[in-house]
Amino acid sequence: MRGPSEIVITAWARLVRAQRAVMAGIEGELKQAGFPPLSWYDVLLELKRRPDGRLTPRELEQEMLFEQYNLSRLLDRMEAEGLVRRIPYPGDKRRQLIEITEEGRSLQRRIWPVYAAAIEQYVGSKLTEGEVQGLAEALKKLLAADENERARPLAKKLSGTSASDDRVS
Amino acid sequence: MRGPSEIVITAWARLVRAQRAVMAGIEGELKQAGFPPLSWYDVLLELKRRPDGRLTPRELEQEMLFEQYNLSRLLDRMEAEGLVRRIPYPGDKRRQLIEITEEGRSLQRRIWPVYAAAIEQYVGSKLTEGEVQGLAEALKKLLAADENERARPLAKKLSGTSASDDRVS
DNA sequence: GAAATCTCCATGCATTTGCATATAATGCTA
DNA sequence: TAGCATTATATGCAAATGCATGGAGATTTC
Lengths: 169, 169
Description:
By secondary structure, chain A is mainly alpha-helical.
């Protein structure tokens, strides 16, 4: 395996830094508006997208690229706040279904305008349309599964779909 | 402020996911090779780049986009391992200088081949030269300071330089 | 069809992070 | 130059994360 070229190293370094900077900014906006961390929003949105508002933890984990134990506890907290509900999975007692509550839907709707504004501020307003296109395209390729990757906890099943309304993260 | 277009939302979502996936992969490679987390490497590299191998915590914080308290404790751990050394800052008793030790330099050198291979695997090998160029360019613009951003803890002074040898993160 | 294996989710414990605040030194202002 | 604001770093405490493992239930194997 060749070593990475300089530009690859630069791109990687900037990917880390940009994600940190933008994430810190956006999380800061949400917090300041009195909202929970972005991961809560991600869960709510994934659930809301489903016609029945339900998903198994396993599915959520793969969508969000979250560690299993991490998600388990995140759901604990969200359930404690009444945003989601754990219900039994018919036909398999190991599994469960996470269902978004009305309160969860309400929170998602209230967060979105703030989140959207932050995305526009930290991402949209900094790039041209073409640059955004190219960025999205390149990142999609980074997300593509790779046979060479060793067995790893995250990033197993990735998809590359687009967004609408408040489809984010 | 307009809301973000769909493609902007997609790009942001993928930025988060790609960074998570790639970071998890690369961190996994390092861990498996018995090395400490990437943040340790970042510190070592920033210090090593300086002619005198020294930097103040404040400077490190800004280079790495790390929280102050977070860096303070990271340096505690690294100092405990003998990788860096805290020395007084001449002329200002509030400050200090963090100096990389010989052991720190050695660790950095040993990590680099593993890290480089991982970068190539998770980033370089997935994109064409042109795509990498475009990605680096777009991310640079995301990192550019923005007057509209509210006073935030991170991301104050950002620069956009390139890489060489083992100049990463 | 029983045992071994695998899948899904939870949890105890250590580490790390986040948040607020402390401590100490410097710089500024009147 | 006394008082007050500001800067640099550290730290107590709570929350979140990582890691290893547990335990229950499904699936496979022979």
